[in-house]
Write a structure and sequence with these properties.
- The chain folds into 2 domains: about 80 residues, Tailspike Protein, Chain, CATH 2.170.14; about 30 residues, no CATH class.
- About 20% of the residues lie in helices and about 30% in strands.
- It has 2 helices and 11 strands.
- It has a 4-stranded antiparallel sheet with strand order 7-5-10-11, with no helix packed on it. It has a 3-stranded antiparallel sheet with strand order 1-9-6, with no helix packed on it. Strands 2-8 form a two-stranded antiparallel ribbon.
- β10 and β11 form a beta hairpin.
- The model has no long low-confidence stretch (mean pLDDT about 80).
Length: about 120
Amino acid sequence: MTFTFAAAVAWDPQGNKPVKNVSFQAYATSDTGFTTPLAITDTFGNPIVGNILNSGSQGVFPQFNQATNASVVVTDPTHTYAWTWNCVPTDAATANFINTPTTATSAAVYAHAAAITLALGAN
């Protein structure tokens, strides 16, 4: 299975600004010593060179994929910054959640669908 991580701002909470032009790598959440960077790919499945995410001139990481971890820690070489990211839910996971009759989301989705159906039927 491949896990997708959405593009995000590399944010410095102390400086209250984006972290620009810094290289980062992703690690398993269990790799607390940051010893083994995870292999990551772009959205087309192409390996990202050196498994490096660069925050760029705007301080934004690109979207990326990782094959084995649904959560990763992204950190710079000096570990000044470290963020734990969770993957974007898959369509199947979202569908399963919405179709679970006991969830509030399920009720909201069904109510919205019913309202749309009524509105379309009234025309």
